[in-house]
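Inputs:
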Amino acid sequence: MTRNIYDQEDFFAGYSRLPRSVQGLDGAAEWPAMRALLPAMTGRRVLDLGCGFGWFARWARREGAASVLAIDVSAKMLARAAEMTNDPAITYARGDLEMLDVPAAAFDLAYSSLAFHYVANLEHTFPVIRRALTPGAPFVFSVEHPLYTAPSAPGFVTAVDGRRVWPLDRYLDEGERKTDWLATGVIKRHRTIGTYVRLLLGAGFTLTHLEEWGPTDAQIAQHPEWAVERDRPPFMLVAARSS
Amino acid sequence: MTRNIYDQEDFFAGYSRLPRSVQGLDGAAEWPAMRALLPAMTGRRVLDLGCGFGWFARWARREGAASVLAIDVSAKMLARAAEMTNDPAITYARGDLEMLDVPAAAFDLAYSSLAFHYVANLEHTFPVIRRALTPGAPFVFSVEHPLYTAPSAPGFVTAVDGRRVWPLDRYLDEGERKTDWLATGVIKRHRTIGTYVRLLLGAGFTLTHLEEWGPTDAQIAQHPEWAVERDRPPFMLVAARSS
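Outputs:
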């Protein structure tokens, strides 16, 4: 089972204070780029994997989605998500993406934001998502960029010549990474871009977009401290369709 | 025009001494992985882009390819390639991949090894390759990995804590990079993995494989000094098909 860090008090408290938790989708710097990958929501049956506080599920409904099945491993996040809506067309369900089990051909869009880098067994998860989708339906997801998850010590450092650099190592060494982010000993699963692509194609998806996200010039003008993210992209955004 | 570094005396002399120049394909560590991406050669009309000394063209013919059009920008390399064969089914032609111009629907395979990271205008090149291929034909290529081309100073460094790391910066800042490799001031074109994928899909290719190449355990056992390449993959191998 995925270690459920989100239900750990210190992590949950820290996560709850992030802009993306307080402001929702507009508090997530990569949301405009994610949104650009999404089809029109009207009438779609949406599968939302790692739904967190449910911001995306509620947005999808406001945009006309027929229904949303929103799954998360965290009881605390689901409880808060449930408090924020009484929409009967959104179903919040507790579930572990490692052992995802959803009906076949029942969804017209699968969506996941920043969840899969906690999941060890995408070899199971991606084919289940593929079967859950109707033919040609899109699958749009984001993960922490593999450049972000790879290093032994993931933080910018100063090189001998005084330049600030991202200390890349272990990029091809896939598997567990322990980091301290909001809490100590958070476990992520590092995999390469090549592996994400292989798992997608192997599950029967056609790749339609792969984006190594960094802040735009306009975002950097507003948040100069984000410029560093262009040295090492923090997120990867992927779109595919079932084929 | 692509700056033709290969015809510069010091670069050509250095390049000619590399294992891959002396031993051919078997002197290239990534060749087994590239070969695994190739279809059977029998009867194929092959387009070889950046053919160098012609090792691949001659291999393709030995494997049964019907013909090979092998293009390179370097007169010196083509002259040496021509010395190594009198096969009338191999045509060596001088050409700049920036301005590639080849017949439509005339080839059953396009191949390129470590050439495109010197080409600035793949926005032109990839669609020409797409049109040159018959429907469904494969396109297999390698480039220096974007992690290799990105940094201001591309060489491993020692971090303050004593770890050896690859000093990544400027990953999302695409464009020219000047490096000293075999000669001073060699100009490469850095682009992200996301951009390679976007250019491929935009040209009408379907992606079938993306591999961030590093040495295998068996290769490291033979060449322990290669282990460092697993911290930062040196090559990216891509397979696609015209669609």
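Remarks. Residues 5-20+45-146+192-242 of chain B form a domain with the Rossmann fold fold (CATH 3.40.50.150). DSSP finds nine helices and eleven strands in chain B.
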